[in-house]
Design brief:
Shape: globular
Oligomer: single chain
Radius of gyration: 19 Å
CATH topology: Lipocalin
Strand order of the largest sheet: 1-2-3-4
CATH superfamily: Periplasmic lysozyme inhibitor of I-type lysozyme
Number of domains: 1
Number of helices: 2
Structural class: alpha+beta
CATH architecture: Beta Barrel
Distance between the termini: 74 Å
């Protein structure tokens, strides 16, 4: 009887862990930069989907079988909504691709926040951010315009 109980409990725990992993999969985005580095953006653990934080982690170019073995840099930022997409574009016009993280507001979903980051060999730095932008607008163009107005 004890073996059966333990077996049933282990099955239940495996089901819970499996469901948690499946749900967490939607909270993590990965992409490979044109320079070959891997970018991981993940919503904060245990936080609601509608608000909280996200982490951005950068991994150096490595053996494709082990893309997460060489952590290079990272940071944590506030989040309003869910992480929707990672893009790459030369926002600061230095000839290298920058990281763009797009988070979509919950509710109507008509607004997004776009954050642009420059990348060094061992660093990631926020270039600029636009909160409450109309989701239909071109994020890359809007970020470039904002940076150009500063200069």
């Amino acid at each position: 009887m004890n073996k059966i109980s333990l077996f049933l409990i282990s099955l239940a725990c495996a089901g819970i862990a499996g469901n948690t992993f499946a749900a967490d999969k939607d909270r993590i985005k990965t992409a490979t930069m044109p320079q070959g580095m891997t970018v991981v953006v993940a919503e904060g653990d245990l936080e609601p989907r509608s608000a909280g934080s996200y982490s951005l982690r950068l991994y150096a170019k490595n053996d494709p079988a082990y893309p997460y073995d060489r952590y290079s840099a990272g940071l944590v930022r506030p989040r309003n909504g869910t992480v929707e997409e990672i893009k790459f574009a030369d926002v600061n016009q230095d000839g290298k691709a920058d990281i763009i993280v797009i988070t979509r507001y919950t509710g109507s979903g008509a607004y997004v926040t776009v954050d642009a980051y420059s990348v060094g060999t061992k660093s990631v730095q926020l270039l600029t951010s636009i909160a409450g932008m109309d989701a239909k607008k071109d994020a890359v163009k809007a970020l470039k315009n904002k940076l150009n107005r500063r200069r």
